[in-house]
Write a structure and sequence with these properties.
53% of the residues lie in helices and 16% in strands. The chain is of the alpha+beta class and 416 residues long. Among the domains are: 94-134, no CATH class; 139-253, Band 7 domain (Tetrahydropterin Synthase, Chain A, 2-Layer Sandwich); 280-352 and 363-415, no CATH class. Strands 6, 9, 10 and 11 form a 4-stranded antiparallel β-sheet that branches. Strands 3-2-5 form a 3-stranded antiparallel β-sheet. A two-stranded antiparallel sheet has the order 1-4. The longest helix has 70 residues, at 258-327. The radius of gyration is 63 Å and the shape is rod-shaped. The protein starts with 10 loop residues before the first helix and ends with a helix. Residues 11-25, 48-66 and 389-406 have low confidence and may be disordered.
Amino acid sequence: MSLNDPRWGNRKDDGKKAQEGKKPGEGPPDLDQLWRDFNQRLNAFFGQKNRPDNGGNNNGNNGGGGPRPDMKGAGITAGVVGVIAVFIWLASGAFIVQEGQNGVVMTFGKYTRTTPAGFNWRWPYPFQTDETVNVSQVRTVEVGYRQSLRTKQADESLMLTDDENIIDIQFAVQYTLKGPVDWLFQNRDQEDTLRQVAETSIREVVGRSKMDFVLYEGREKVAYETQTLMQQIVDRYKLGALITNVTMQAVQPPEQVQAAFDDAVKAGQDRERQKNEGQAYANDVIPKARGAAFRLMEEAEAYSAMVTENAAGNASRFKQVLVEYQKAPAVTRDRMYLETMQHVFSSASKVMIDAKSGSNLLYLPLDKLIAQTAATDASAAAARAAAPATTTVLPQEAMPTVEVNTRRSSRERESR
């Protein structure tokens, strides 16, 4: 109805329309009528019928014309509603545990039992409650940083080594749950507790190690010892966690001394390089020097043996010649003289000519003389090259042979 309608606000017309009755679909529904219809349908479902009143009317009205409620039907309705409510309440105690998880049932907040994966039931609230714990998930705790290595936590990462140096360590701890009951009831703020355990363990391990060991060759050992110590502390605290891995993300000196530390590292590397070069040079020179010394010793021993054997041979030959000389002095002197002259002339480059014979035919073996001279020079050069630099070769005059001594003695005897 519009506000401009002249019948606006005319309550008499409204009252007449109300007495005449409303058409279906006009106005809000009657709640009392809906309740009566619901009771009638529920009674019909359970086989109940409305009892007639004293007036014989079956329309459900009393003598005064008003509706008379059915108390028995109302009771049945309330019972059905109660049963449905109890069923819904009992059904609320059902819960499903996924694979890789465990369900923990608590009675008034106290642990009762642990349920496996699958469909499970407990007494509904407020008697019992349940909590699901994922025991197969690999969880991670970060120490010294959060989410990224750039977001450092200096109070966690800076620690002191055994040689009183400060080092910055950032690492991650991976773990799983082996005891869901201990994880839920034995400790409060489990992840924070595990982070404190990790920090305590690595500080103890680093405090027993040198700085260079932690920075370079000892990273894996530090991680392993930290994991072992963490597991011991976690078991002692009954945290219900299993430490699976400790990963070193960054191990370095503090940023304030990073430049000086780099210079020290470079100096150490230069020192090691120079030591290696010196050792390589020593490994090359010392064996050569030892070989040369051994060769000189062997050559000296060989020369000594040669001189000794030559002297012994010359002495033995002299004794033999002496025996023959005593038997026939003249013949022995002539033979020694001829052998000596033959030896001298065979190694001389001069030609002896008999001028008294007066022969016009002169034969000079120049080719043999030239070849003999070349062979003599080559053998002398080879002997000088083969002789060691420190070996002093005695001149030929310093080692007179038996033949020279014999010749001199025979000449002296002849002059006498």
